[in-house]
Amino acid sequence: xxxxxxDSDGEPVPIxxxxxxxxxxxxxxxxxxxxxxxxRALPDNLLQDVxxxxxxxxxxxxxxxxxxxxxxxTDVGRHSSVAFRILMFNAYDxxxxxxxxxxxxxxxx
Length: 109
Description:
Blueprint: E1 2-6, E2 12-17, H1 27-41, H2 44-47, E3 51-57, E4 62-77, E5 80-91, E6 99-105
């Protein structure tokens, strides 16, 4: 199965190819499901000021979303703290499967 992304000129751009058994799950559906779970799980005061960052690579075949919760942090000493984060990754090129990581995740370069 071949995947394409439509560019700003309306032209298809190939982003990946997978086998027949690959289950296609649109990133938008995944994000909506994750966000429903977040709203159900966390009180309103922790949902305030949530930062959401999206990144794509390889013409959109790899999609990454980072939810950071600045109102839900923990002190790790040495004048530093880490915030609760949810990291979501989805790929359409067969390189990886869907992944979701949660926890007190420190920022990295």
